[in-house]
Design brief:
This protein is mainly β. It folds into two domains: about 1-160, no CATH class; about 165-360, Immunoglobulins (Immunoglobulin-like, Sandwich), CATH 2.60.40.10. It is built from two helices and 25 strands. The protein has helices spanning about 85-90, 210-215; strands at about 1-5, 10-15, 20-30, 35-40, 45, 55-60, 95-105, 115, 125-135, 150-160, 165-170, 180, 195-200, 220-230, 235, 245-250, 255-260, 260-265, 270-275, 290, 295-300, 300, 305-315, 325-340, 340-360. Strands 12, 14, 15, 18, 19, 24 and 25 form a seven-stranded mixed sheet that branches. Strands 11, 13, 16, 17, 22 and 23 form a six-stranded antiparallel sheet that branches. Strands 1, 2, 8, 9 and 10 form a five-stranded mixed sheet that branches. The longest helix is centred in the N-terminal third of the chain and has 7 residues, at about 85-90. The relative contact order is 0.14.
Length: about 375
């Protein structure tokens, strides 16, 4: 959620309609004309302290557009604080009632705020919500509804940013100093180089990630291999299996050992892997992975709204045999949440890539000719 000063005019200001889960905390303080904090009897407790005369926690019902909270110890008129003794002690100086409101919004409550955005040319969102307050003062509870009224409006407007709903980062898993592979390195031997990679798919920015996951039937991943050509452009390789093998999580063992097969659509050949959803209570609980230390982790963290998708890329060391030049490769990862109709219903999709380099560089030390002075 974003906050923006509402100095501009001509934009849509909407009423906030609270949607659970939302929790509200209101702390009341009493202050004299000099800013000293008072207790309910009018005695100074601190010149700058945080002493409160009321601390109220509320969970509004769905559809609430207005909260009415009396100055009290628990938010009800039954425990309302009588200001008469305090006003007698202070005389004409009067008292200021300060209310600090803290609102915590859960996933579904983000719908309370309109989607909008700002740009370098349009620095004010087209739609936002403002929070307004009003206070009434009366000699007794029965006349409170018609008591003296004071109103105010928050100078800021609030909205949901359109551009930060979901994200995908595809990178090397663990610590790596470089992604350059020297196929002529004697230390490599006959082994095929393995690049441990992972996609980190984050859906926590969805206005209601729980509802999106409930609607989804699974998660689909595709990996596409491209090579840099003489024009410094990356082009898709028609036979990626000659260059790499890709392993994904085996649901049975949690090891990254399931060799992926390729599919070809519209002339593009990609590796595919899918996570099928289980129960609504534990949608992707059947998918876990082992890290390098052997510890087991869930592929989907429902609380954080994040997927960790590990893939081991095994490079064919003979793919450029006899070619003493650099070759740059790119692996595109695309992740999609799909709905009841499979590939025809994509609820969300994100893509990212990583690059690696293959080369054959002689590591033999060049010695100076001994006959050369």
């Amino acid at each position: 959620m974003q906050r923006h000063a509402t100095e501009a005019s001509g934009n849509t200001i909407t009423d906030i309609n609270l949607i659970t889960p939302v929790t509200v905390n209101i702390k009341f303080r009493l202050l004299d004309a000099n800013g000293n904090v008072l207790n309910a009897a009018g005695n100074v407790t601190s010149s700058s302290g945080q002493a409160t005369v009321g601390n109220v926690n509320i969970t509004p019902l769905a559809g609430t557009t207005e909260l009415t909270v009396p100055l009290s110890t628990n938010g009800t008129l039954g425990t309302a604080i009588n200001l008469v003794p305090l006003l007698k002690n202070l005389g004409t100086a009067g008292v200021r009632v300060e209310a600090t409101v803290t609102m915590a919004f859960g996933d579904g409550a983000l719908k309370s705020f309109p989607e909008s955005s700002i740009t370098t040319t349009n620095t004010t969102p087209t739609a936002y919500v403002q929070l307004a307050t009003s206070a009434r003062l009366s000699a007794n509870a029965s006349t409170l509804a018609s008591g003296t009224l004071t109103t105010g409006t928050d100078p800021y407007g609030y909205y949901r940013d359109k551009s930060t709903n979901t994200s995908l980062v595809y990178n090397v898993a663990g610590s790596v100093s470089q992604l350059g592979i020297n196929l002529s390195d004697p230390a490599l031997g006959e082994d095929s180089p393995v690049i441990h990679t992972a996609g980190y798919y984050n859906i926590s920015g969805l206005e209601d990630k729980a509802a999106t996951i409930a609607k989804a039937t699974g998660l689909q991943c595709t990996l596409e291999l491209l090579v840099k050509n003489a024009k410094d452009e990356y082009e898709t390789l028609a036979k990626p299996g000659e260059y790499i093998t890709v392993n994904a999580v085996d649901p049975g063992s949690s090891t990254i050992s399931t060799a992926l097969t390729t599919t070809t659509t519209d002339g593009k050949t990609v590796y595919t892997w899918a996570m099928n959803k289980g129960t609504d209570a534990d949608p992707f609980g059947g998918y876990q992975y082992l890290d390098t230390s052997g510890a087991k982790h869930p592929c989907y963290d429902a609380t954080a709204g994040t997927f960790t998708l590990p893939f081991d890329v095994i490079v064919n060391p003979k793919v450029e045999e006899g070619i003493l030049q650099y070759a740059n490769y790119r692996i595109n990862l695309t992740v999609s949440l799909v709905g009841p109709d499979g590939e025809t219903t994509v609820l969300d999709t994100q893509s990212d890539y990583l690059k690696y380099t293959l080369a054959r560089i002689s590591t033999t030390i060049l010695r100076q000719n001994p006959t050369t002075p």
